[in-house]
């Protein structure tokens, strides 16, 4: 049987015209890098403004009487208390407390909850949510929307020229704004790079025009998924299907902040028995952050060993850090081995190389928060 045909975002032709190297990702033909290459794209995002096409992500509205309670049935956050104009990170949970996906949920206005989920999981996520919805609560998939991410220290100044009010947003704010000549936009000041920046939902029919408008600014360059991955790794942000999956709990993944205090008290979310036990004691494994002191980068699947050479964990994401000029990795290991400053090893191509545990993020976040 032949491979399923890859889908295309509304910007597919623009990527080809820019000389992008394309590859399949989450069922879409996506730009991995442009002619500048991953290293330069990574550095540009850290110093100016990088523009990413993330239209493969799933977008939807959750609306109707009781939407908050319906959503809280499958996530551990307090969304009844989420104020209009704010966004919150969360995770969809199975009955065992494992993570089915991680997502962003926002209230840009009073319409309900605006969801952005991972592209590889979106169909399963939306079917899962629909199965839980009570009468009167509706999930409307936004198949006709594109999603752009403008990231970096110059992002706010660039976007302010096109979208009045965008610069007034702070980290994790969300708003329905008009811009780029009156387009209906949903904008959040957030992203997946650790830098200041925005995610911009807009009509797919206008995506190419907006893409070109933003790239006409000398401060902006197109950035592919290769640099997106190295940026998020430096920021210590998990990649679904690698660092988190249905076997991993929010506590193990270092995402306990997504479990609201009120939900911890009530214990009314899927997998609460396991998750609350891990919060009050210690999980059998925890997220570990490693600086590779010598040798090649430790990639996903590399074994982590202790000082005696015994296998103690596994790398789930790893690569070269352009900012630090050294390989870095994250993975899982027993909690006692995850404290910063410990010397362990990773096995790469049959040879053990020294690593040191460290804190996350590897590179400090530069989000713009309210005073």
Q: Can you describe this structure?
A:
The chain has 371 residues and is an alpha+beta fold. It has two domains: 1-283, Gyrase A, domain 2 (2-Layer Sandwich); 285-363, Aminomethyltransferase beta-barrel domains (Elongation Factor Tu (Ef-tu), domain 3, Beta Barrel). Helices cover 20% and strands 32% of the residues. It has nine helices and 19 strands. It has helices at residues 12-17, 38-47, 67-72, 122-132, 155-160, 207-215, 225-234, 261-266, 272-280; strands at residues 21-25, 28-33, 49-53, 58-63, 87-93, 99-106, 113-117, 138-141, 145-151, 174-179, 183-188, 197-203, 220-222, 286-292, 303-305, 311-321, 326-333, 343-348, 351-357. The strands form four sheets. A six-stranded mixed beta sheet has the order 10-11-12-9-3-13. The protein has a six-stranded antiparallel β-barrel with strand order 14-17-16-15-18-19. A five-stranded antiparallel beta sheet has the order 5-6-7-4-8. Strand 1 (21-25) and strand 2 form a beta hairpin. Helix 2 crosses helix 7. The longest helix has 11 residues, at 122-132.
Summarize the structure.
By secondary structure, this protein is an alpha+beta fold. It is 20% helix and 32% strand. It has helices at 12-17, 38-47, 67-72, 122-132, 155-160, 207-215, 225-234, 261-266, 272-280; strands at residues 21-25, 28-33, 49-53, 58-63, 87-93, 99-106, 113-117, 138-141, 145-151, 174-179, 183-188, 197-203, 220-222, 286-292, 303-305, 311-321, 326-333, 343-348, 351-357.
